[in-house]
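re: that chain from earlier
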Amino acid sequence: MSAQQQVIKIDDISAENAPAIYVAGGLGQFFDAVQAEVTAEVPDLTTRKGRERIASLAAKVSKSKTAVEKPGRDYLKRLKEMPKVVEAELRDFVNKMDALRDATRQPLTDWEQKELARTDAHVDAIQHIKDLAIFDEPPTSGHLASVIADLELLEIGESWEEFLAEAAQVKDQTLIKLRGLHAERARYEAEQAELIRLRAEAEAQAQRDRDAQIAREAEERARREAEQRAQAERDVAARREQELIDQAAAVQRAAEQAARDAEAQAERQRLQLEQQAEQARLAAEQAETNRIAAEQRAEQERQAAVKRAEQAAEQARIEERRRADAAAAEIVRQQEARERDESHRRAINRAALEAFIAGGMPEECAKQAITLIAQRKIPAISISY
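^ sequence. v structure.
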């Protein structure tokens, strides 16, 4: 009787022939038959048909196990006098069938695990590309440029296997997002720089306005002071002139009185009065000269004050322009320093990456290692920039 015929007869087990089957060693023939059938062929795991065949053989083992176990269980219930023998035989049969099933399916299980690990690696790599466009905090344009440059260096080739198309699409989509973010951040940083410049110009203009106001106030104060001094000098000259006029009038009255008293002294008094009148005239002329000189001095002082105010305002504008230029130069210097630092870091990271790869590390692993070290997620290890 062949193994094929024996396997088929498993389905014919019944209560009538159970006593001849469920005896010590009675089920070994079924196990041997099933084992012979499932081990008689070695399906090809590289083909879908072969993998399906292995699964089919394992299912057939389970089905054969059930076909033998169930009638035996029923027969066991009726055989109160020999449950231990039947139970031991069934347990041994079931264990061997389970082991045979597991052994039969093991190549497929191993293949499925390897396949899952392989596909998971590709899925994780694709997710890593997507995560490059996700940031906990708004990144700088320089950092985005570095990420874009690194992603552009990522090669999407045959090593991605069936995930090649998806990886290429995700890379393109991520680059589009990163470039959009880079454009937004660059625009934002330019706007912030412009705001700083405008703020500096506004502060400079406010300072110029304050300086101009101070200059105007100084000029007005100098003008008022000059006018007050000129007016005071005019008042003094006027008082002196009036005093001389009053003095001349008094002398004139005294002369007239003396003429009435003595004709002889009239001529002498007349001469004396003429001399005094001449002196008064000269004094008046001197007072007028002094007044004109005072006004000229006041005008000169006013012009000097205006010139000083203009010079102070011009100096203030020069100083403010110097401060604005220095602030703009500092902003440019800081931006250039950040760019040089980013370039320097990328160069060092690239050198470290190439060293890892030269040492035998896969490129993706090397990039991940560089990223983790740069982010200080690896204790006691750092990159010296």
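The two ends are 81 Å apart (CA to CA).
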